[in-house]
């Protein structure tokens, strides 16, 4: 019986894990809800694409690598003169015709701070405003720019820029369920999980009887 299965039957085992773990990422890994994957493990043979699977969510290895690449391209346009922390994101989304496309974004800061948009939000807004409302997977990358001290930069190299709480809620609206979340630090393996496990028992459109991928403004009476 693996760890994940055990938790279905043994709440005490889950409690023990909770007490043992130092942070939420530890717990995700321990319970099999997230995995660290070395880039070199992600490869494919032309003609027989290999699939990466976690929690029943499947994605082709080449899509994972492409998403991370597109997130890094998004990061190039990051506007972060206040935090100097540049974030990029890329979302693989599907429209009503089942066409799939990748939308990238970056964080856009504001002198008044609170109007700041995260990278995930700008990528999501681009996808939804183009009619792509089913999010199959997304990747995030981030890090300080060169103006910050080496000491501070060193502290964050290899850390995981997991989506913030607001981003998790915002993207949950369009979660294809499962939606894979890939977090790629500048150095070290990718962290791969799903939105469901990053936002457990969250409140979403289903709670209001809505399926965002079917919504059509012309059909609203
Ligand atoms: N940021 C994102 O773009 N996404 C996240 O999920 C976490 C934080 C941005 C917001 C702000 O511009 C900078 O990172 C520092 O918090």
Give a structural overview.
With 221 residues, this protein is an alpha+beta fold. The chain has 2 domains: 1-32, no CATH class; 36-214, Cytidine Deaminase, domain 2, CATH 3.40.140. Helices cover 31% and strands 24% of the residues. The chain has 8 helices and 8 strands, in the order αααβββαββαβααββα. It has a 6-stranded mixed β-sheet. A two-stranded antiparallel ribbon has the order 2-3. Strand 2 (51-54) and strand 3 (57-60) form a beta hairpin. Helix 1 crosses helix 2 (11-20). The N and C termini lie far apart (51 Å). The structure holds tetrahydrodeoxyuridine.
Helix content bin: 25-40%
Q: Determine Rg (CA atoms, Å).
A: 18 Å
Bound compounds: tetrahydrodeoxyuridine
How many helices does DSSP assign? 8
- Shape from CA axes? globular
Give me the CATH fold name of the largest domain: Cytidine Deaminase, domain 2
Name the beta content range.
Answer: 15-25%
Average pLDDT metric: 87
Q: Can you identify the CATH class of the largest domain?
A: Alpha Beta
Number of domains: 2
Order of strands across the main sheet: 1-8-7-6-4-5
CATH superfamily descriptor of the largest domain: Cytidine Deaminase, domain 2
Q: Biggest β-sheet, characterized?
A: 6 strands, mixed
Unreliable spans: none
Number of strands: 8
By secondary-structure content and strand pairing, the structural class works out as: alpha+beta
């Amino acid at each position: 019986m693996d760890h994940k299965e055990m938790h279905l039957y043994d709440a005490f085992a889950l409690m023990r894990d909770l007490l043992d773990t130092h942070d939420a990422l530890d717990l995700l890994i321990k319970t099999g809800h997230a995995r660290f994957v070395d880039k070199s493990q992600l490869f494919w043979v032309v003609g027989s694409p290999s699939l990466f699977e976690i929690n029943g969510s499947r994605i082709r290895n080449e899509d994972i690598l492409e998403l991370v690449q597109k997130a890094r391209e998004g990061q190039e346009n990051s506007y972060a003169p206040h935090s100097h922390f540049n974030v990029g994101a890329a979302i693989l989304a599907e429209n009503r015709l089942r066409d799939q496309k990748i939308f990238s974004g970056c964080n856009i800061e504001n002198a008044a701070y609170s109007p700041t948009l995260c990278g995930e939000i700008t990528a999501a807004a681009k996808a939804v405003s183009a009619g792509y409302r089913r999010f199959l997977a997304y990747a995030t990358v981030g890090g300080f720019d060169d103006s910050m001290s080496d000491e501070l930069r060193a502290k964050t190299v290899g850390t995981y820029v997991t989506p913030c709480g607001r981003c998790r809620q915002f993207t949950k609206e369009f979660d294809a369920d499962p939606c894979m979340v890939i977090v790629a630090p500048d150095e070290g393996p990718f962290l791969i999980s799903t939105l469901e496990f990053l936002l457990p028992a969250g409140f979403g459109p289903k709670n209001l009887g809505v399926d965002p991928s079917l919504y059509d403004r012309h059909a609203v009476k």
